[in-house]
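Run log, item B.
One chain of 447 residues. Sequence copied directly from the ordering sheet:
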Amino acid sequence: MMRLFRSTAFAVLAVALSVVTASGAIGQTTTTTNTDAATNGNEAAAKIVAKDPLTGAPGTGLTRGVTAKSVKIGCYVDRANWADEEAGVQARINRANKNHELPGGRKIELLPCQDDGQNPQTNLQIMQKLVQQDKVFAVIGTSSTISTPSTDFLNANQVPFEGFGYLPGFCGTRWGYGWQGCTISTYSSTQKHKAISTASAATSIAASGLKPADARIAVQANDGDQGAAGNKTLTAAYAAAGGTIVYDKANIPSPPPGDFTPFVNAIIAAKPNLVIANTEFTTAPGLTAALAASSYKGAFGNWVAYVPGLLDASPQLAASLQGALVTTLVVPQELGTPYVLQTQKDLTAIKHSTNISLSLGVGYAEADLLVGQLKAVGKTLNTKTWDKTINKTRFVFKPSAAGGPGQIEYPAMHFISSDCGITVKIVGTKYVPATPFTCAKSVVTTL
């Protein structure tokens, strides 16, 4: 039964996503809530790690991809899991160009995003081509397969790379920039400090209705660097938030299997009361559906299924996911903050749906950070001025509208995250915020 239910749910999900991407906004709120009071930065942790050493070549003044009129930016994506990442990037960069935000009137020339097909070797080939042939100054995107060979190549060639900081290459490296910092608690044998983010773990425990001391948590991930690194971070975070880890596996293959029964049985045997799917988007629906169809009666959630419009487009899928908890690091559109409204305005300007999915929200946040960095560096743009401005002095970035993600500062956030998040609950066909958008003070220890 689990195999059939998984296949049906995934097929419905694929259809629903196509409807959401093509359509306009569905079921949005117009209530405006300013979350800035909660997002002023992980400053105490930042002070501790601010002088930790970075790996990677210092900036020597390369002007690759830079002219007096433009700066060329490459784009990469794992499109199967981050379908509308590119739209978020395009929307923010379009506004920057339209409003002449960069010093000297310089425009951002964004190359089309290249899909790595979830293949690390393809990702490396994309990076090599972007740098060596297309001569880009920086790259931007999200992929679970931007692995160490790719990030080492970019770090050695003085290429700023913007992305989602859940892989080791974004942590402790001079040229890697996660849009919310480094989310990995342990990433290198040479790091000076270990930082544990707790906000998102605490919100999902609270949303489950459990007291931290009573939470028995199972964390299930995909096989590979992303899953293993993510599980290390999540288990540390849930433990720091007061929960007990009873199951920790990163063994589901990609692409996902047709039958999740062995994984579900192993999870149930550990007797958790909160199951967290730390998986790729293509895996989460099948695993969630299999849990719902099993004997498991506890709470369950994931980090990737926040896709506004999805539930309205597919009542069948919504019915199967009733009560599911979805933790997200982006500010959900249901909060209706000025940042959310600005994002939707920018999406309208490029004639795209105003639904802000996780992948679109991440792409927009990455581009927002990149624009802020380019503005800070100024008219004289090269790898030396970038390195000096972003990595050698305290660069502080706040989102371009109020009520956005947490404050970012570098170089500190090469080592820590902004430590912000929210958990929403699926009720009917809506994503209902189950907690406030919360930022916490990360736990930092000396190694």
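Observations after the first pass:
- The chain has 14 helices and 18 strands.
- Residues 2-22 form the longest helix (21 residues).
Flagged for discussion on Thursday.
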